Amino acid sequence: xxxNDNFPSYETMxxxxxxxxxxxxxxxxxxxxxLSAITIVELIIGxxxxxxxxxxxxxxxxxxxxxxxxxxxxxxxxxxxxxxTLRYIIIAPYVFFIIYLSFIALNEGLYSDGHKATMDKxxxxxxxxxxxxxxxxxxxxxHH
Length: 144
Hints:
The chain is mostly helical. Helices cover about 80% and strands about 0% of the residues. The protein has 2 domains: about 20-80; about 85-144. α2 (about 20-45) packs antiparallel against α3 (about 55-75) and α3 (about 55-75) runs antiparallel to α4. It is elongated.
């Protein structure tokens, strides 16, 4: 049983010549290789994390992700073909929002680490003070 519908085939809907098809395929391969290169650089950096500080790693990976996301939007959502002003109007709010979220996430992570370390020091100091007072209190009770 053959499926028939009222829609024309893709070939007649595309309305482009073989030359245009070659250009589109060339653009797709270009996008593929650029995204692959960014991903490979991120993987190489990920295999050698001791070469970078924790903050540098976070910034590199967030930056790489933003770069890839922007490139995908420009390429596959055809934003790259629009007027430069329209591109900036559409992309700018997202860029600022993502930078803001990244700043909050990185700073909150640092605050949590620092706060935890401060809490650990305070608990340790408090236990040392109590530990030092306890033997002194026992010795004074023994003398009474």
